[in-house]
Amino acid sequence: MRKRIIQLVYVIIGGALALNIMPLLWQLIGFQNNLWLNNYIVNFLIGGVLFFILSLPTWRLVDNFIHRLENMLNAQSPLMLLVGSLGTLIGLVLAVVITVPLQRMDNVLLSSVIPVIIMLLFGYLGFRLGTTRIDEWRNLIPSLNNVSRLTKIRGKTKKNDETVDAENEPNYHHYKILDTNILIDGRILDVVKTGFIEGTLLVPNFVLYELQYLADKGEELKRVRGRRGLDVLNELREMDAVPLEMWEGDYDDIKEVDEKLIRLAKDLNGALVTNDFNLNKVTQFQDVQVLNLNELAGALRPSIKVGDHLQVLLVKNGTERQQAVGYLDDGTMVVVEDGRDKLQERVTVEVTSALQTDAGRMIFGKLV
User: Fold this and answer.
1) Which ranges in the chain are annotated with CATH 2.40.50?
2) I need a labelling partner for 278 at 20 to 30 A (CA). Which of 34, 107, 218, 291 fits?
């Protein structure tokens, strides 16, 4: 379908050009008085057929250009598109006003070519004048600021009394902003499944574009990392544990993704979710809260390590032969090899391994 539309545009352009050029050509070869050849229908058909033939090898180039243009427009903020469109429209109106006298001349160059060039020039200048002062427009139109760039993907934000009260708490941040590293890491999936994340997960567009850039890189390692991040993001979209939204804006005056994340967290009063050590250090001076998964994993790491000695009372037999089972004060199960002969005795055990399960932690050891 897209191919047919492009070829139709080719035909219309070719026919329009032929209506202006073919009469001159017929006059040059002496057929200006031949009404069977020198008429609007024949001229349009000749130009349309020639440009249709031209479209066969070149339509894909036009299609690729349109595709790149769509990607570029999708990467822009709504305010940028609005201001750019208004500037372009104003430039085109001025160009039409200026070229009205030229369009009435008999000369093809002055009546057709020059007006088109002036329209392109004024349209470009209008777009540039509008978008290069985007910060001033953003201040004039606050309703098109950051909050309006949020696109809900899945989930509903609760607005009951309890939620409203929670949002007024100083330590509560409704938006949990995910960075590139946390999506590549993948552990955020398990954390979300447990229900420890509250509020709404927010993925900025520039994080998504960075993942796409990595997935398209030539280096195999970077491609794998980028594709893993995109897979994790798709899994988050399918989960119902917590709402997920996209932020469709950008900060054109900032180049680094980390700086954009910090700016976004400040604008939305959100918390960054990351495992990036450097980003964590930088945000300590930026008054931005960070939820670092590495710190969370460290806090959940067992305090008992392999090789430690424990005092435990063996209270019952284990599932395997010669095993005995005891419990620490916090209820952690300790399985002791060759401890069956020491039932109801307090023994010293050397830790050989530890296992974390959904039901809790299990420690394996041997008698000392």
Assistant:
1) 309-367
2) 218
